[in-house]
Amino acid sequence: MREAKNIMRSGIMLAGQVGRRGWRAAACWMMIMTASLPAGADVDHGREVAATHCTRCHVVGDINPYGGIESTPSFIGMKYLADWERRFEEFYVLPPHPALVRISEVSADRSEERPAFVHEIVLTLEDVDAILDFVRTLPSPAR
Ligand code: HEC
Q1: Which terminal residue of the chain, N or C, has fewer Cβ atoms less than 10 Å from its own Cβ?
Q2: What is the rounded CA–CA span in Å between residue 88 and residue 83?
């Protein structure tokens, strides 16, 4: 299943190179692949990753109800936003995360000439998917 998601991602990148027709084919392919993925398989792993790395700033469900940093939105609070799932898929490119989160398959090791000013969080795309699966299980305030 995880392989399938990574294959989907390579499909998207490949389609970017082969143009429009390829893109459409990849989109079809993605729908087929997504439909066959079992839901919620990575919830426990996602909970663990979020507890380890995200609670430093965010309130993450019942893990740290009184923790986090005041100016940082809570995970449950973010579920008010219609596009919260997309935000969790891409959070590592949305500020402030690029300064502290690195996805091992996506970006190279940080150069020694560019030291991190905060403790760097290194995740895999699998971890990102698992976090999303976990956040899906949190109560939604909007519905
Ligand atoms: C150093 C503190 C810090 C850490 C650690 C952190 N975040 Fe965030 N995150 C923030 C702040 C601050 C915002 C609000 C940004 C804004 O308002 O533009 C945010 C916003 C978000 C958003 C919404 C993004 C948007 O722009 O809509 C998501 C999703 C998110 N974080 C997920 C995560 C996940 C998952 C982790 C753990 C892997 C994590 N964050 C770790 C500080 C942090």
Answers
A1: C
A2: 9
- Which pair of structure tokens corresponds to residue 109? 């090791």
Cα 3 to averaged position of ligand 1 atoms, centre (Å): 26
Pairing outcome for strands 121-123 and 101-103? parallel
Span 85-94, pLDDT tens digits: 999 999 999 9
Instruction: Return the residue whose CA atom lies nearest to atom 32 of ligand 1.
Output: 91
* 18/2 Cα distance (integer angstroms): 25
Ligand 1 centroid to residue 29 C-alpha, Å: 31
Tell me how far the alpha carbon of residue 97 lies from the centroid of ligand 1, in angstroms. 6
CB-ligand 1 contact for 138 (6 Å cutoff)? no
Question: Each residue of 98-143: pLDDT tens digit?
Answer: 989 999 988 777 777 766 677 889 999 999 999 999 999 999 876 5
